[in-house]
Amino acid sequence: MKKGCLGLSSTVLVLLGILVVLALWAIPKYNGLVKQQESVEKAWGNVENQYQRRADLIPNLVETVKGYAKHEQETFEKVIQARANATSIKIDPSNITPEDLQKYQAAQGELTSALSRLIAVSEAYPDLKANENFKELQSQLEGTENRITVARNDFNEEARTYNTNRRSFPTNIVASIFGFGEKPYFQAQEGADKAPKVDFGTSEGK
Length: 206
What we know:
Elements: H1 2-66, H2 73-88, H3 98-121, H4 126-130, H5 132-167, H6 171-178
């Protein structure tokens, strides 16, 4: 009887030892994935902030252009609708899918195109181009477009670091067990994720 108890105790101790070793091995892998996932989510937050900054500039820009180009109503309506579509899309960065990101990019791309058409309107209205408020809004828009590009690139880099680690052995085992999914990237699609080609007046005379 004592031998049986001793044998059972030894088996339990061995199993406990194995579990402890597995835990010591898995915990750093798990924590590393969590940290990298949080970095991806933070980078996504920066992307959203910059796109929101652009969206916040649009109402004032539209109103300023309206003051000089009242007959461009169709252009104004397209910009306003594109802005509404773009800002209506909400994404959970902890569970972002390629389909989510593609839809988000497409909506932002439509807004980019609409903004490009709005800026082009100023070419037909010299007084509008000379308006200080209009020039200031254009300058802010240009800066925001640059920050959007940087934020997207930063997101892609964070996602790439996370995905590389997630697929690497033996971290991929932990990732599979605990459901760490792959993160999508911003893709360089024609007209869908590029800053609008606008002339802010700063290149004249160069």
